[in-house]
Specification:
44% helix, hydrolase, GDSL esterase/lipase At4g10955-like
């Protein structure tokens, strides 16, 4: 049941937030509140992920207690549960975590999250879990900054041949939120159409001088079979542009401009101009890795309930709300 899977994934991300809040408020033993978030779903806490820069808990590995007993009675038409869920929290604006989290938020905006020690540690933990149990038994989940970590890790694992079931709640989109800022649909399309023309033109000009074009295109195509679950709220400027990104791509193919969009969708103007290429994502230059939001495919859930405040629109709690009102769209490249 996709609603149950979404609820479990989002609650395990909330568990990581609560683990860090327990640490900051010295809630130990019976006073700690985090364990309820995983015990309710029959998970155990297998490992706590700590950022060596500030000692904060940024993620956790949860193990499902009934994984093996489930497999014995498995039915062919139901999706199996995970053995491990690796979950990552977003920014906590409190004294003990704020400084480090905001620095990493800035790295998301500049598309250089993968050089951070937090991300390097996270990908090692993921690779180790996959090596032990195989990629089919591991889920990734994250919210906001944590969704950026999970998304980047998911891309790297997919390109290595190990796609993971991934739940990305309110992931940051490192570009201007046209979807939120511009009200007119015609104007939105006009702005994006112009952007696609410029991107395609610059990509052809830049990549005409390079010899790795095929390799970069192949890198984008390698991701096409991976379909992460993407959760966005149109009232949240941090993630709302994903709606426009996919909607625009469909529209370009509808009006016969598919060839232009095929080039534009896999490139970012900033990384093309800075020499990052935009499609490879393997450069070691500190800020020239591909933008996070260049995603070929996604199963997108859009919260169409009213979210009057930023806290509501960007919060993790909306995704397990039983009164949730959503729109579901599969985008496949």
């Amino acid at each position: 049941n996709s609603y149950h899977r979404t609820s479990v994934a989002s609650c395990l991300v909330q568990a990581v937030y609560t683990l860090e809040r327990d640490r900051q408020q010295n809630r130990i033993g019976l006073k700690s509140q985090a364990n309820h978030w995983w015990e309710f779903f029959n998970f155990t806490l297998a490992e706590t992920l700590i950022d060596d820069s500030d000692g904060s808990i940024y993620g956790a590995v949860f193990e499902y207690k009934h994984f093996f007993s489930y497999n014995y009675h498995n039915t062919h038409h139901s999706k199996p549960p995970p053995r491990h869920v690796i979950a990552f929290r977003g920014t906590i604006m409190k004294r003990h975590s704020r400084s480090r989290d905001l620095k990493l938020d800035l790295r998301c905006v500049r598309d250089c999250l993968q050089d951070s020690t937090r991300f390097v540690h996270a990908i090692q933990v993921i690779q180790s879990a996959v090596a032990k149990t195989g990629n089919a038994a591991v889920w990734l989940a994250g919210h906001s900054l944590g969704a950026a970590v999970a998304l980047l890790a998911g891309k790297i694992m997919t390109r290595s041949g190990f796609p993971l079931e991934s739940y990305l709640f309110n992931p940051p989109f490192s570009s201007i939120p046209i979807e939120k800022l511009v009200k007119s649909e015609k104007l939105k399309h006009g702005v994006r159409f112009a952007g696609s023309l410029v991107k395609a033109g610059v990509a052809i000009a830049v990549k005409g001088r390079h010899h790795n074009k095929g390799q970069e295109d192949d890198s984008f195509m390698k991701l096409a079979s991976w379909i992460p679950y993407l959760y966005v709220n149109p009232s949240d400027p941090i993630c709302s542009e994903y709606i426009g990104y996919f909607k625009h791509r469909n529209k370009m193919f509808e009006i016969g401009a598919g060839k232009i969009e095929r080039i534009a969708t896999r490139n970012s103007l900033r990384s093309l101009l800075s020499g990052g290429g935009g499609g490879g994502g393997s450069s070691s230059d500190s800020c020239s890795s591909e933008p996070l939001h260049l995603l070929p495919s996604a199963y997108m859930t859009i919260n169409i309930s009213q979210s009057p405040t930023f806290k509501r629109a960007h919060g993790i709690h909306q995704w397990w709300d039983p009164m949730f009102n959503g729109e579901y769209v599969l985008h496949q490249f």
